[in-house]
Fold:
Amino acid sequence: MSKRTDLLLSFADDELFLGWRNSEWTGIAPFLEEDVAFSSIAQNEIGHARALYELAAAELGTTADELAFDRPPDEYRCAPFVQLRRLEWARTIARHWLYETADEIRLAALKASEEPDIAGIAAKMDREEAYHRMHAEMWIDRLLSTGEGRARLDEALDELWPYALGVLDDQLRPELRRRAEERLGRELPDVAPVSRGVHEAELVALWEEMTMVRRSAPAGTQW
Amino acid sequence: MTVDEVWAALAEIPDPEIPVISLVDLGVVKDIEIENDSVRIEFTPTFLGCPALEVMQRAMEAKVDELGAKADVRVVLDDSWSTDKITPAGREKLRVAGLAPPAPRGAGKLNLVELQRGGFRCPYCGSMETHLENLFGPTPCRSIRYCDSCRQPFEQFKTI
Structure:
């Protein structure tokens, strides 16, 4: 597999899994506006995954749906960060902010890509992601405004920071640390990243859920 | 068949989710070229996750088919579409339908504080006394605002 295809699949898998994780808040978020927000963010992320899978599918002679749903769990390349199931609000917000910040850094690098189709999609995604980032920033402000919020956010950051580093390639990680420490007003642990290639047990459970309908129907079923 | 006739035909296709405006009003038809009996349409989706994209593509193909030609719809995925591409007529149709048109894209980054505070007109009573309820709404392209004058929530087309 080419480096380009590997990059497209890694990025698409990140967006697909995070989209599914975000959608787990639909109906059970702390209040209605957040049900709507996390559902809408999930829809955007899954749309981004589809666009990236379509580019990869053209190279591999397959389809976006087959890449999204027909691979065995071992073949997904998503960062362990997006595999985690964290239905706890401070951890959800910590992951949301860390992922969107890492994503902004990754998109900036891809917008400068010499491959016009990748640069084009990155530029389009970035327009939409601006809303995700504003939403995450709003929640960081809220958590930082009280002692309890700060304490809960700190606990979540200590747990999730090594995973967040694992979203980015080596050379982009210092920028994530710089932005995170400045915005969150604290030092982050000097730890080894939990990098791509490691699979959390939660990945298989999510894979079983998201492919269940497709696996239950014969190939070629028209929905 | 001329390029202008194709533009006129596509201008009859309503947006699947906001049927008061057409695909041409929405600015998603980027270019039309005719070669023999084939019509090449460059199309730029609004949001990548918008479920209406395939419906739009099929509607354009059907329209060109009615003109007796075959459509070759090419999807362009870059940042060449923005809400600034919505035509003035399209913006007015959105407003009349109760959906506040998007603010123009500024030179700088989108700013949460500006979105929260003001500069957005209520499509029902025209008041500028409105505030942001939710950055996100019922479809990817909409936010929810509330008018403090007529006490009515309304949908705001996001600026992207």
Notes: Chain A is about 70% helix and 0% strand. The first helix of chain A runs from residue 3 to 23. Chain A has one domain: 3-216.
